[in-house]
Design a protein that fits this description.
alpha/beta, globular, Spore Coat Polysaccharide Biosynthesis Protein SpsA, Chain A
């Protein structure tokens, strides 16, 4: 694609205290073979050198602009704010987490596919995840998949190709069509958004490694592992979209499987690992009750039995 034919891409990086990795992230955007982009860095009340680093780059390239929050937002709220700041003229949106970076052809390859297939609302690719390469399972000859098929396959546990926000490209119109693109009640709202958007559109996949996801102790992924927030995220998605993508029998089976895992997890961590007890309890209690899964003594007894004798 030559510069004249390149539609505008809004690249966004929501960031809080990431002085160690932000420069590498920004450099990866600057070295893209695709040139028609704006880059919005949303500084979420950082107290380290993050604002200074961002400002240094914005002085060098006018396509970079910085937004400084006047109050601290949680991770999902900050992403939603960043989405609201994208240009009305942008056709695509690419999130790049401040811990991560993009390979030079990332924007070019993703946009090329999306331009060929207007029915595609989300484009993914292979990524380097720490020291692994993941998202295998899509046949090499397949570059476009009906959204309902990929969501159904994911919900049944056959594959997972959505990754993180750094991994995918979104159509800006899809973002602008929603008041809040991410559900702020779900810490794994990026996954939920894929299930919501793909009800009526297709998923595109580029068979190249186009992004890098960093794993370290301060990332949201490490927090998710500590509290196992994936349980709650999976349940929110299953309750909302299970009836959309699964047959009734499949949906009920997945709910039973999740419930069994849920009680085993609680027994293991709340009764057997006392240091996490209060933190885990506070995190799960309210959300699970609102979703119709209150923590019950009967469930604990069943979970305890399952943990030791299943």
């Amino acid at each position: 694609m030559n510069l004249i034919s390149q539609p505008l891409i809004s690249v966004i990086t929501p960031v809080h205290n990431n002085e160690n990795y932000l420069a590498e992230c920004i450099e990866s955007v600057l070295t893209q073979t695709y040139q028609n982009w704006e880059y919005i860095i949303v500084n979420n009340c950082s107290t380290d050198r993050t604002p200074e680093i961002a400002q240094e780059y914005s002085k060098k390239d006018k396509r970079i602009r910085i937004h400084h929050n006047d109050r601290f937002l949680n991770v999902i709220q900050n992403h939603n704010l960043a989405f609201r700041l994208i240009s009305r003229k942008s056709k695509y949106c690419k999130v790049v987490h401040a811990d991560d970076w993009l390979f030079p052809e990332c924007l070019m390859k993703m946009v090329e596919l999306a331009e060929i297939y207007p029915s595609v609302s989300i484009v993914g690719s292979y990524r380097v995840d720490g020291i692994k390469i993941n998202f295998h399972g899509i046949p090499h000859a397949c570059t476009i998949i009906p959204g309902r098929d990929i969501c159904r396959s994911t919900m049944l546990g056959r594959q997972y190709v959505f990754g993180s926000p750094t991994t995918v490209l979104l159509r800006s119109d899809v973002i602008r069509s929603r008041v809040s693109f991410y559900n702020e009640r779900n810490i794994h709202a990026d996954k939920e958004a894929c299930f919501d958007v793909l009800q009526n559109s297709d998923f595109g996949f580029v068979h190249q490694i186009l992004s890098f996801t960093r794993r370290h102790n301060k990332t949201g992924t490490m927090l998710a592992k500590k509290l196992n927030t994936y349980f709650l995220g999976e349940l929110i998605v299953l309750k909302k979209y299970g009836p959309v993508y699964l047959k009734e029998q499949e949906y009920r089976k997945r709910l039973r499987e999740w419930t069994k895992r849920y009680y085993r997890f609680f027994i293991k961590n709340i009764f057997l690992r006392s240091r996490k007890r209060k933190e885990l309890w506070n995190y799960y209690r309210t959300e699970l009750k609102e979703l119709g899964f209150p923590i019950s003594s009967r469930g604990f007894i069943k979970g305890l039995f399952t943990h030791y004798f299943a």
